[in-house]
Amino acid sequence: MGEAKRRKGSGTPAAGKSKSSRLPVVVVMLAVVAAIVAGVFWVTQPPEPEAVSLPVAAANAQPFPAELDQYGTSIGADDAPVVVREFADFQCPACGRFAEASSRLKQEYVESGKVRFVFYDLPLNQHRNALPAAMAARCAGDQEGYWAMHDRLFANQGEWSNSGVAVEIFTRYAGELGLEERRFSRCMATDLHQEVIEASVDVAKRMRVTSTPTVLVDNIPLSRPGWGQLSAVVERELAAAAE
């Protein structure tokens, strides 16, 4: 008896044609997708403030010398219970990514008086436009435009990082931000803030900071600079300050 006749007589379905035989495959695929979604959700969630994985201060770590903050650029209440300090290079891609977190920090914690934020310039030698960018931010600061220029530089990092006319681009930014371009250009041309930028670099050397971005919450260095860890450590330190 042929196979077709045998199946017809016995009622046995043809191999590979049963819907039930495909069902386990569908179930497995759905389970895999669900696992991937759950994994992504878990990875992207900020850690809880009490999580044991959060960084802590090194053993016998001393408080950050607050008098050094004069060489950085600060925003926020002088008596804020927590201080976040960032050592950064405007041309550093990782610093550009952290800029979103620092912007959110200013909105959610600095404006409410809970945190003071201090930005230290640490232009790296391998980035030819990092020092002019630091100068541009400082020159904008002479016209109350430091943080606007800070944000513009990071947001448009790809435009000027490898440009041979970076200073011209910075001057255009100054005009777009409503600053007086002639005053800004004069500041840039005379290297007006060279000494204070060098002093900021000296602070980094004193604190043994060698990479960017290096972010400290009080005297606690973040191991994964980003909003998740930053916000969790800030919350933990705020809670400790309130006790």
UniProtKB/TrEMBL annotation:
The keyword Nucleotide-binding does not apply. The chain crosses the membrane at residues 21-43. It comes from the Bacteria. Keywords: Disulfide bond, Isomerase, Membrane, Oxidoreductase, Redox-active center, Signal, Transmembrane, Transmembrane helix. The keyword Transmembrane applies. InterPro entries: Thioredoxin-like_fold, Thioredoxin-like_sf, Thioredoxin_domain. Residues 45-193 form the Thioredoxin domain. One of its GO terms (molecular function) is isomerase activity. Belongs to the thioredoxin family. DsbA subfamily. This is Protein-disulfide isomerase. It comes from Marinobacter mobilis. The lineage of its organism: Bacteria, Pseudomonadati, Pseudomonadota, Gammaproteobacteria, Pseudomonadales.
